[in-house]
User: Which sequence fits this backbone?
């Protein structure tokens, strides 16, 4: 009887071992399946991250190129405006020089006219003074003759 019990116990141990092996295999398979599933999800996440990184890089490059182009356009526009302003300043400076030259000529003409007028008035004053002196002398001589 002990032998039969021993065999039954051994049989049960063998069954338990089989069940353990089956359970181990099924758990291992489940773990392996879960691991594969996680690997697949990880690969998908990695691909999504890479796609996002590529998209961000592309968007950044596009934004950078657009900004670079905008800056170049602004620089070109500012250069054109600066050139126009320089041309305008040169034109205004030339106009100012012409106006100054004309004003200088007018002043010189007026000064020359005033000098001529002053000389003319000087001569007229000298004539009137000389005439007045001669008139006074004539009157004085006339009075002198009358009283003498």
Assistant:
């Amino acid at each position: 009887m002990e032998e039969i019990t021993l065999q039954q116990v051994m049989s049960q141990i063998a069954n338990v071992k089989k069940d353990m092996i089956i359970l181990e295999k099924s758990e291992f398979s489940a773990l392996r399946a879960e691991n594969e599933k996680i690997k697949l999800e990880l690969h998908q996440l990695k691909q999504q991250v890479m796609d996002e990184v590529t998209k961000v890089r592309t968007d950044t490059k596009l934004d950078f190129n657009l900004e670079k182009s905008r800056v170049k356009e602004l620089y070109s526009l500012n250069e054109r405006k600066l050139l126009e302003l320089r041309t305008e300043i040169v034109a205004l400076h030339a106009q100012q020089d012409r106006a100054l030259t004309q004003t200088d000529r007018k002043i010189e003409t007026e000064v020359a006219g005033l000098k001529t007028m002053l000389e003319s008035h000087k001569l007229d004053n000298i004539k009137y003074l000389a005439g007045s002196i001669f008139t006074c002398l004539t009157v004085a001589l006339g009075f002198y003759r009358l009283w003498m």
Remarks:
- The chain has a mean pLDDT of 90.
- DSSP finds one helix and no strands in the chain.
